[in-house]
Amino acid sequence: MQISLENKFLKDWSPSREVNFYPPSQGPLAVYGKSQFFDTINYAVDAFQRLDTSIGSFYHVNEDSPVLNFCLTEYAKGEVWGSNQSYIFNPRRVVDCMEISVPPAPRNGTPPLSELLKGIEDERDVARVEAFVLAMGAEKRRPPEEERDVAPFHFDLKSFLLEINKTLNFDALLRADLSFTIKTVNFRRALPMDRPDCYQMAITISLDNEDHDGQVMITLTAVPMIVKCCVDSIYIGNAHDQADMILRSFLNFVVITICTLSFILCTRAMYRAWLLKERVNTFFRRCRGKQLCLADQCEFLNLWYVMITANDCLIIAGSTIKQLIEYRNVVHRESECRKNPRSDSSAQGRVNPFTLPQQRIEGDLWDVCGVLLGTGNLLVWIGVLRYLGFFRKYNILIITLKRAFPNVLRFLLCVIILYAGFTLCGWLVLGPYHLKT
To answer: Gene Ontology cellular component (predicted)?
Structure first.
């Protein structure tokens, strides 16, 4: 989605930038003239107003009065006279933010009922769709094409700044940020019974002039935040998806149960080993007048059990997160939106993307789940070496690795020290000539 947003809102964006090459085939996206600076902002505002032209399902948060935030970060004073190379400079930073209102885009409304009922055979689903159309209201019917034609909108930053008596001083300008929020519904289906997700995208287009070298870098950042979909939403599933999801949940619970039993048994074994160590230590203290040294006490600790308990914890946590994500997709998520969501547009209001909560989205949870399950799986396969030790020939190899492990660590420490020295030397000597700098 990042690429589609950059293609939508960034002027002069080319398909060659969608593939990362090293060294890059072209320089960074930047502007070098004042007219290019204004054209970039004008293009982004116009694209925001015309969200309905995108293939993606992008919509304004406030459909009645879409708003953008335009912030200028400048030095408190920055004047340059090139004739005699004199200047007035105050390094204190000042941030000035202003709102840009654009006219609402044409509304498509609700398609005809016959179009919505195409491909739906279950009578219960038909009744749900009919109730949905009735709840949406007759005023949201799709108007004819000729009624949706409106005069084109073109934003002009120069005129806007002139109206608010704002002068843009490029000598003092540090950065300009154009921020806005859009909403979207993701219909991508990754798993059975995977319901569509509703998102708000906090988008910021930054024009960075921190270096004051005549090159203003352009970047677009999009922060997705998952929100609850409207209660009026309808999901039409099938029996095959339901059976597949039940099988997945059953497998998750089986894995969690087995790992829990393994964790309990290994913990009990380590606890009994600790009790045995205490009894032996007490015996030596009473009968021999001395205690076991630390190395002898560590002989009672089975490191294989420690590793097994660690991978059990990782797999239990990963499987639990996986089940929660899949269960979230099955449960119908209701929100407090009204029957007519457009009447709530003013309540959603003018959202500042910098004040939206940074919620953990499903993609981040999948990353955490993958790390937990992957690490746990790695430890499980390492634990298989324990059973190879039951064979005489394999046991010799494992004992050799165990004895050589401290020396291998010493060798790695020496290698890391040498590598760090060469790395820091190369960074200091060759770093200023690197392409990325």
So the answer is: lysosomal membrane; plasma membrane
pLDDT value at position 191? 57
Give the residues across from 40 on adjacent strands. Answer: none
SS3 332: coil
Read out DSSP for 138-177? Answer: GGGBPPPGGGG--------HHHHHHHTT----TTTEEEEE
pTM: 0.66
Tokens found for residue 28: 């960074």
Helix, strand or coil, per DSSP, at residue 118: coil
Residue 105: helix, strand or coil by DSSP? coil
319 and 252 in contact (C-beta within 8 Å)? yes
Q: Is residue 319 within 8 Å of 255, Cβ to Cβ?
A: yes
Cβ-based neighbours of 3, under 8 Å, separated by 6 or more: 18
- CA 14, CA 228: separation in Å to the nearest integer? 34
Instruction: Give the up-direction half-sphere exposure of residue 188: CA atoms within 13 A in the CB hemisphere.
Output: 8
Q: Which residues contact 269 (CB under 8 A, 6 or more apart)?
A: 302, 305
Amino acid making up residue 45? V
Q: What is each CA distance from 226 to 54, 187, 229, 360, in whole angstroms?
A: 21, 14, 9, 8
Q: Please list, in sequence order, all residues whose beta carbon lies within 8 angstroms of the beta carbon of residue 202, skipping any fewer than 6 positions away.
A: 179, 181, 222, 223, 225, 353, 354, 356
Distance between first and last Cα of the chain = 28
- Please compute Rg for the chain using Cα positions: 32
The residue length of the chain stands at: 437
- Taking the C-alpha atoms of residue 413 and residue 406, their distance in angstroms, rounded to an integer, is 11
Q: Maximum CA pair distance of the chain?
A: 102
Instruction: For residues 308-326, give the mean pLDDT.
Output: 91
Chain segment 62-80, per-residue pLDDT in tens? 877 789 999 999 999 988 8
Distance (Å, rounded) from C-alpha 365 to C-alpha 359?
A: 11
Cα-flanking dihedrals φ and ψ of residue 313, to 5°?
A: -65, -40
Closest C-alpha to 100, from 206, 178, 181, 183: 178
Evaluate whether 257 touches 320 at the Cβ level (below 8 Å).
no
Q: At what angle do helices 34-49 and 2-9 cross, to 10 degrees?
A: 120
Give CA–CA dist 309/264, Å, rounded.
Answer: 8
CA-based nearest residue to 263, from 324, 320, 316, 323: 316
Phi, psi of 164, rounded to the nearest 5 degrees:
-100, 10
